[in-house]
Write a structure and sequence with these properties.
Shape: globular
CATH topology of one domain: Rossmann fold
Structural class: alpha/beta
Strand order of the largest sheet: 5-4-3-6-7-8-9
CATH architecture of one domain: 3-Layer(aba) Sandwich
Distance between the termini: 36 Å
Length: 213
């Protein structure tokens, strides 16, 4: 393991990541495969990096913290809103039975799909569409993770979460005042808990399936 990767894992441990399954996947997943050549030397810096279309690959500590809070089991079905580079989907793919991921930019989705095939992550299903609507045909989901900030939690996603399921979603229209919320669905409704402050790009309704550049 490279020194830069070792430093990153040490940073994650210091940042409160204790789940050994998450740390193992973060250690083995080559983040450099998900960034452009311009940023390869910074692939293991604990920071977000641009990936095009105004989107970013999230800070590794945020990816690890959200993955840990999601409590993914190996038999679970997970929905991800916001494929982006495919990095979070790849991490989840190593932990869950099946991952369904939605992206509004067709080019980003296709590039992410190619990356995961190259890495032999074969249990992630890609879809170009409106993430605010979820993916009803595959519902319910044991876990849902949103990697863009919503003004509030989309009701469609709550509806598609299984009873007993967990959803993580950054909430806040103001880019400097967002928090990841952990939502647990019960027989009686939902519970909401704020976990940590974050900065995500906004969750935008609608898809751009024909926009490639």
């Amino acid at each position: 393991m490279s020194m830069s990767r070792q430093r990153l894992i040490a940073d994650l441990r210091r940042g409160g990541i204790t789940d050994e399954r998450v740390l193992a996947v973060m250690t083995s997943m080559p983040r450099e495969a998900f960034v452009s050549q311009t940023f390869v030397e910074r692939a293991y810096d604990n920071m977000a990096l641009p990936i095009g279309f105004g989107q970013t690959i999230s800070q590794p500590l945020v990816v690890a913290a959200m993955t840990q809070a999601l409590e993914v089991g190996e038999r679970m079905k997970v929905l991800e809103i916001g494929t982006g580079s495919g990095y979070q989907a790849a991490i989840l793919g190593r932990l869950a039975r099946r991952v369904f991921t939605i992206e509004r930019y067709k080019m980003l989705s296709k590039e992410a799909e190619r990356r995961l095939l190259d890495l032999r992550v074969h249990n992630v299903v890609f879809h170009v569409g409106d993430g605010t609507r979820g993916w009803p045909p595959q519902a319910p989901y044991d876990r849902i993770i949103v990697t863009a900030a919503a003004g509030d939690v989309p009701q469609a996603l709550i509806d598609q979460l299984a009873v007993g399921g967990i959803m993580l979603v950054p909430v806040g229209a103001d880019p400097v005042n967002q928090s990841v919320e952990r939502i647990v669905k019960t027989e009686d409704g939902i519970t909401r808990e704020k976990l940590m402050p974050v900065r995500f790009v906004p969750l935008v309704a609608g898809a751009l399936p024909t926009y490639d550049g």
